[in-house]
């Protein structure tokens, strides 16, 4: 029975046990990420800043709206909740917690929820929040207790649980020791169940002192790369989004492997994907009558008897030298296996030996896994620092999974970098650059082209210098994808017109012309001849015989009036070519306005009818 069940699988599943998609995340085995926004709804949150700056509540709602929309696009399987504390009204399961308002339960984000959050933004949103929830007494302990119940009510498997507190008050209970103690106790209970508590504190007059209360509530950094508690409050939306973006999603490794540094010396590392091409999601097939999802099943049948075949009834074959080589599945697996999964150190090479044209695909990122093997982080850090100091890269053999072909990786060291706000820009670790095999390298026979003069080269250098700019790949979004998602968003949210997107990939011609000035024309004068017109029509290509001078132009065909009448009577004018018909029109003085064949025939017939 197990053999049959193993056979009945979806069309997209791997039948041969070969290597699947390296980027795919299996939610059935790893679980889903969950995120709860716990927002302070006190009166202080609704006070606008100086010079018309948005209030802390408005900043928070804009950030929540941004996370909701990004979750729908990037990871719609994740669960998100929105809870307000310090409210006048109460709304939560069984209404057991006072001054706690559960605006959204822990569930997948959708169009309805995005609309709800959008209604809480701006001045109108503050008025809606005041009418719906109001501002009342604050009890953070009961709010954390309510969030704990939200996690308990979820029946799905959760891989990562995170709770973010948004507030502009460093003493939420105004010195009430009993409520402070209850909040610290419930925060400790949440952390024991695996919930990570983060503080997204916002700007307040006089500054925000984390040490007064929240330093005992939030979770410590999970590892060295984790962004810890930020002491400076957020005053701008972009800063708040940056901190939330760094916290909201758990970084999943595509593989956990051993890095073998020598005999008996293994270091546990995680393999991460830093860059991946984003594509449009595949369209789901729905049944026409009820719009239910359609699942595809694949079965194999015998061509002669029509009986259903089991996996054990099939074999693999490969044609070689005109002969069919038949193999069992186990034999195919043995042939595919070259080495066990892992990274094996081969040696070290200077960084100048690594060439740009060796790049095959996006690189991997290697980071230590201290939980798997104790001491891995220490050895890994020592190797990283030594490679960085000596400006060398480590050459390794990389096998991702069983039966996958081995590849050569160049491990390039990267030190940790922090910005002015002590937010991590670059994590410490190795970039795994895929290197080509000898079979992958192609020798190109470049054609001999005319070389540019020194004056032309110098002029082009000036043009390049004028058009230089600081390029960041993160500043350019794919306009096709953005337009696709804006159209989907407009349909889901019942918007009349999709949100306009700006295509940053289009060159700014006016600005470029202003920067260049007369340099472009000067370069044209140096390269092109004086009579060159780029907008003019190119001369028609001559036939090879004409270029060689071996073919003479054929004389025009003379046609008598009797011959023309005979063609008209027989109806054979249409068999004549257009050049012959044109010559006949000129010969008999027929004026024509067009050059189409039927127009020429009609003109000749009209001439004979006169």
Automatic annotation (TrEMBL):
GO CC annotation: Ku70:Ku80 complex
Name recorded for this polypeptide: DNA helicase
Family the entry assigns: Belongs to the ku70 family.
UniProt KW Hydrolase keyword: yes
Known EC number: 3.6.4.12
Pfam families cross-referenced by the UniProt entry: Ku, Ku_C, Ku_N, SAP
Domain of life according to the entry: Eukaryota
Keywords assigned: ATP-binding, DNA damage, DNA recombination, DNA repair, DNA-binding, Helicase, Hydrolase, Nucleotide-binding, Nucleus
Catalytic residues of the enzyme: 28
Reactions listed under catalytic activity: ATP + H2O = ADP + phosphate + H(+)
Name of the encoding gene: LOC120029852
GO BP annotation list: DNA recombination; double-strand break repair via nonhomologous end joining; telomere maintenance
């Amino acid at each position: 029975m197990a053999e049959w069940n193993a056979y009945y699988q979806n069309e997209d599943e791997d039948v041969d046990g070969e290597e699947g998609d390296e980027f795919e995340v299996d939610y059935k085995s790893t679980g889903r990420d969950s995120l709860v926004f716990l927002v302070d709804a006190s009166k202080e949150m609704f006070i606008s800043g100086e010079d018309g700056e948005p209030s802390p509540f408005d900043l928070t709602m804009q950030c929540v709206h941004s996370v909701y929309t990004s979750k729908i696009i990037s990871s719609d399987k994740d669960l998100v909740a929105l809870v307000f504390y310090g409210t006048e009204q109460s709304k939560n399961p069984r209404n057991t917690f006072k001054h706690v308002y559960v605006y959204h339960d822990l569930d997948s984000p959708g169009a309805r929820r995005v609309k709800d959050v959008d209604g809480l933004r701006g001045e109108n949103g503050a008025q809606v929040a005041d009418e719906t929830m109001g501002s009342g007494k604050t009890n953070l302990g009961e709010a954390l207790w309510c969030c704990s119940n939200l996690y308990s009510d979820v029946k799905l498997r959760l891989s990562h649980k995170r709770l973010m507190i948004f507030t502009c008050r460093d003493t939420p209970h105004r010195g009430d020791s009993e409520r402070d103690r209850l909040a610290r106790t419930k925060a400790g209970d949440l952390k024991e169940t695996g919930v990570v508590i983060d503080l997204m504190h916002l700007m307040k007059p006089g500054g925000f002192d984390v040490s007064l209360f929240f330093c005992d509530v939030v979770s410590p950094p999970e590892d060295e790369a984790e962004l810890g508690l930020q002491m400076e409050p957020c005053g701008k939306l972009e800063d708040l989004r940056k901190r939330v973006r760094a916290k909201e999603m758990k970084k999943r490794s595509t593989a956990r492997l051993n890095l073998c540094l020598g005999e008996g010396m293994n270091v546990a590392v995680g393999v991460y994907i830093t860059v991946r091409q984003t594509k449009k999601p595949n369209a789901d097939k729905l049944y026409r009558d009820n719009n239910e999802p359609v699942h595809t099943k694949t079965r194999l049948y015998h061509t002669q008897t029509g009986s259903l075949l089991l996996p054990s009834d099939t074999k693999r074959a490969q044609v070689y030298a005109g002969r069919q080589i038949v193999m069992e599945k186990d034999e195919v697996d043995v042939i595919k296996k070259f080495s066990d999964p892992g990274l094996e150190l081969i040696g070290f090479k200077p960084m100048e030996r690594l060439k740009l044209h060796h790049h095959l695909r996006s690189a991997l990122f290697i980071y230590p896994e201290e939980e798997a093997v104790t001491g891995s982080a220490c050895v890994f850090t020592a190797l990283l620092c030594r490679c960085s100091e000596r400006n060398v890269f480590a050459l390794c053999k990389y096998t991702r999974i069983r039966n996958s072909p081995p590849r050569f990786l160049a491990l390039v060291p990267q030190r940790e970098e922090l910005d002015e706000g002590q937010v991590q820009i670059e994590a410490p670790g190795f970039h795994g650059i895929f290197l080509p095999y000898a079979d992958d390298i192609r020798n190109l026979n470049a054609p001999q082209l005319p070389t540019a003069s020194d004056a032309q080269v110098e002029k082009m250098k000036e043009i390049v210098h004028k058009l230089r700019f600081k390029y960041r790949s993160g500043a350019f979004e794919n306009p096709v994808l953005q337009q696709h998602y804006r159209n989907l968003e407009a349909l889901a949210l019942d918007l009349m017109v999709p949100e306009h997107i700006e295509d940053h990939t289009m060159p700014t011609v006016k600005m470029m012309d202003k920067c260049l000035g007369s340099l472009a024309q000067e370069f044209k004068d140096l390269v092109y001849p004086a009579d060159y017109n780029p907008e003019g029509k190119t001369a028609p290509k001559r036939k090879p015989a004409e270029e060689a001078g071996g073919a003479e132009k054929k004389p025009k065909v003379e046609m008598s009036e009797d011959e023309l009448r005979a063609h008209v009577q027989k109806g054979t004018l249409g068999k004549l070519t257009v050049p012959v018909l044109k010559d006949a029109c000129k010969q008999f003085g027929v004026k024509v306005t067009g050059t189409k064949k039927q127009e020429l025939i009609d003109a000749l017939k009209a001439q004979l009818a006169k």
